[in-house]
Amino acid sequence: MIEAHGLKKDYDGNLAVKGLDLTVDNEIYGLLGPNGSGKTTTVNMLTTMLSITEGTASVCGYDVKKDAAKVRECISYVPQDMAVDARLTGRENVTLFAKLYGIRDRAERKRRVNEVLEIMNLSDRADDYTAKYSGGMRRRLELAQALVHNPRVLFLDEPTVGLDVASRRSIWEYIVKLRDSGVTIFVTTHQMDEAERYCDRVGILRKGVLMKEGKPDELTAGMDSIITIRTEGGFPSKIPDSVKQIEFKDGLALFTSPDGSASLPELVRCYEAEGIKIFSSSVREPTLEDIYMLSVGQQEEGAFDATQFRNMMRRR
Amino acid sequence: MYRMFAFMWRDFLRWTRSPINVLSTMVMPAAWLLFMGLVIPAPYPNYLDYITPGILVLTMLNAGMAGGTSIMFDKVLGYLNKFLAVPAPRESILFGKIMFITIRGLLQSTFILFIAVIAGASIMSPLAYAQMYLLLFIFGVLISSFATTISLFLPDHDSYSAFQAFLVTPMYLLSSALVKYESMPTIVYWIAKVNPMSYAIDGARMAAEGNFPALQFVVLGIVAVIMVILCSIRFRKATIR
Questions:
Q1: d(CA A210, nearest CA chain B) in Å
Q2: Contacts for B114-120: CB closer than 8 Å, 24+ residues apart
């Protein structure tokens, strides 16, 4: 559905995307990456809104450069900022897009509009002005607008940003349903937990280069467990060979190990042998967020960004 | 065409649901009409008939300049981004906007004309009205594409408001709206002579007298076409990177 080869975007000498190769089928593909890594640029090129500097891309089998109009007919794009007309009702907002997508027959248009409002569970509020809608409802209305012409590919830029937990979940449930009904979903997000749970495959973008790509569980499968030990401040002079220290600051030490549950007792013994009092210790399996931080954390310094990693750990 | 009408449909719905916007651009011309036509001593006989074309063109000028922010808001609020990704030709967004602003101006002018007639302006022949409306339409296209072009150049709404305030009143006062050319000092005379607003006003007056305003149609038509072309170029640059 989406194919890109050697995709490049040059903004006046500043290379935002550096030769991207992508193949996306009927699945939920999540493009992850820090701000400025080239996610939105990539989406804008694939949705024909931005010219491609070099390389080729096709969506639904149409070349993005040569057949831009055909591409736009088979896709929908929902940008990050929620833009629904507050002075129009939900139904009018969707009807506008039905018209813009060229559904000219009045009866057919009415039927499609009702259908997508129903799918997005907005039928009972369809004739209210959207000024009265909650954030989650506006997002659902945007999805309804995007679905009104039966697109084969749906591009979503940060679909859950600014929404509460329940709304996030409900948006993702709709997205999964769409995937099951045959729509290809290309989504950019900063929400690692959501990407891990709902995306079939993810790609991690850093400075316009795809660092890692694959199924979330496959990406985390090969990675070592993470051991956390909190002490009053001491650090043992000797640690087991099987563990690798990745950070130590203010009594909080982080280690990785291929077999965390076996290494933890050994590590604890090293601490005890030197009389360092341990407040707490834990082992956990790595998450997509760890993979993400390891892949993009070096963005600025060319080395593991321990501060970011620690902040991330404290959040859990 | 179909998509252009869809964009216009959206703008009209939004406009009619905001009473303050419906009224705001009409209050100033209505006040000028009543003040100049009824309050101050008339400098010429039938002064109300003399200034009515000027006030109608002022209404178009006001409506057109106020409409310049429309595309700017669509851009800032993210609507434009969504519209650019639909299979509608991109020009339909722009032309829909220009047509909406112009037709909205014509509706407001009709309301002002109605007030003028109630205040005592003479009723003209249908042909004179037809020519006057055509002139107002062309002037509306000219001014709304000009306003839209400017708004696509300026960084934010504040600077557009400043531009609007700086342009509207001088353009109106330095035209043939309120005084005859022969009563103008030389410098004002020449500014009024090149002011596109004067062409629309003079044309409407000629139509009222039963003459066909050929020169005015040609000049306004050419300037309007140039403005639309410039606006399209600017719009392409602002949207396609």
A1: 23
A2: B115/B30, B115/B33, B115/B34, B116/B33, B116/B37, B116/B48, B116/B52, B116/B55, B116/B56, B119/B33, B119/B34, B119/B37, B119/B38, B119/B48, B120/B37, B120/B48
Q: Answer for the pair B99, B62: CB distance below 8 angstroms, yes or no.
A: no
| Cβ–Cβ under 8 Å, residues A99 and B98 | no
What would the two tokens of residue A115 be? 């259908």
ipTM above 0.90, yes or no: no
Tokens of A143: 């999805």
Torsion over CA: B44, B48, B49, B53 (sign) = positive
Q: Which residues of B touch A69 (CB under 8 A)?
A: 87
Q: Where are the domains of chain A?
A: 2-219, 223-315
Superfamily of domain A2-219: P-loop containing nucleotide triphosphate hydrolases (3.40.50.300)
Chain B partners within 8 Å of A102 (Cβ): 2-3, 87-88
Cβ of residue A77 closer than 8 Å to a chain B Cβ: yes
| Residue from B91, B90, B220, B11 nearest A96 by CA | B11
Q: Which helix (H) or strand (E) holds A121?
A: none
Question: B1 — contact with chain A (CB < 8 Å)?
Answer: no
CA-based nearest residue to B151, from B141, B161, B138: B161
Q: Determine how many CB atoms are found less than 10 A away from the CB of residue A198.
A: 22
Measured between CA atoms, the residue of chain A closest to residue B17 is A87
The topology under which CATH files domain A223-315 is Alpha-Beta Plaits (3.30.70)
Residues in Cβ contact with A192 at an 8 Å cutoff, skipping those fewer than 6 apart = A32, A287, A288, A289, A292
Residue A142 phi, psi (nearest 5): -65, -40
10 Å Cβ neighbour count for B152? 18
Is the minimum CB–CB distance between B237 and chain A shorter than 8 Å? Answer: no
Q: Torsion over CA of A171, A175, A181 and A185, rounded to 10 degrees?
A: 160
Are B175 and B195 in contact, with CB atoms under 8 Å apart?
A: yes
Contact B78 A79 (CB under 8 A): yes
Strands A201-206 and A209-214: antiparallel
Per-residue pLDDT of chain A (316 residues), as tens digits, is: 898 898 888 888 888 888 889 999 999 999 998 888 888 889 989 998 888 899 999 999 999 888 888 898 899 998 887 788 889 999 999 999 999 998 899 999 999 999 999 888 899 999 999 999 988 899 889 989 999 988 999 999 988 888 888 888 888 998 999 899 999 999 999 888 899 999 999 999 988 888 888 888 888 887 888 888 888 877 888 888 888 887 787 788 888 888 888 888 888 888 888 888 888 888 888 888 888 887 777 444 344 545 545 444 443 3
Cβ neighbours around B3 below 10 Å, total:
22
Residue B83 in contact with partner chain A when CB distance is under 8 A: yes
- Taking CB atoms and an 8 Å limit, are B3 and A99 in contact across chains? yes
**B64/B224 Cα distance (integer angstroms):** 13
